[in-house]
């Protein structure tokens, strides 16, 4: 058998929530590994210079309108990516929201939004991509869970619930689609320095508590700290791994 390789040359990836934070870093890392990248964006008119950065890496980029609350946009984005590139090898379900509130104060509209984006959006993006991959008889789906799916975070009960559900959805899809040579895995990061966590990590007491809970390494992660696991799971080196969720938490859940 050949030695493991993490090269993604000739492959096509679609990243949801690609415009900033983890989605942006994952898109660039996939391009650096050799993949052409379709960029799923909540607002296709706002994504900065990401596409040009991917082109500068020698890969093709395709910005797509893909609001994860809209199943019509989800299916159109997947269809457009396949039509433009001829195939779809990798889906990274990165989009997520996390309205904060104590459980007794959670508003129904925040509950519905969190489930619509984190769970419904992830499921139907997987379904749309899965249909393409089933026809191809190959594919890699990588979902974004969170350490919040494994530990309780106060004021984040609904978010935690959705991220735990994503870890289990990952197992379910892996079992159903393995016969088509499709692997389905997830990554579960700790607090990562992104625009979405900027406000809470700016609180000195909160930041100190997070650093203390990241038991082994005692540092806040950067987006690129997450991309290595995504590239690994997308590559042929992970061909016998499916249904798994890899924690990227600096040792938080080891305590």
Could you outline the blueprint of secondary structure elements for this entry?
Blueprint (H helix, E strand, L loop, with lengths): L11 E4 L5 H12 L3 E6 L8 H7 L4 E5 L5 H15 L4 E4 L14 H29 L2 E6 L12 H21 L4 E8 L8 H4 L2 H10 L10 H11 L10 E4 L7
Parallel strand pairs: 1-2, 1-4, 2-3, 4-5, 5-6, 6-7
Helix pairs in contact: 1-8, 3-4, 4-5
Main features:
15% strand, Rossmann fold, 255 residues, 8 helices, 7 strands, alpha/beta
Protein model, in words:
By secondary structure, this protein is an alpha/beta fold. The chain has a single domain, classed as Rossmann fold. The protein has eight helices and seven strands. α1 crosses α8, α3 runs parallel beside α4 and α4 packs parallel to α5. The mean pLDDT is 94.
- Derived structural class: alpha/beta
Q: What's the quaternary structure here?
A: single chain
Mean model confidence by pLDDT: 94
- Describe the sheet with the most strands: 7 strands, parallel
What is the highest CATH level, the class?
Alpha Beta
How many whole angstroms does the radius of gyration measure? 17 Å
Shape category: globular
CATH topology: Rossmann fold
In short:
With 255 residues, this protein is α/β, with parallel strands linked by helices.
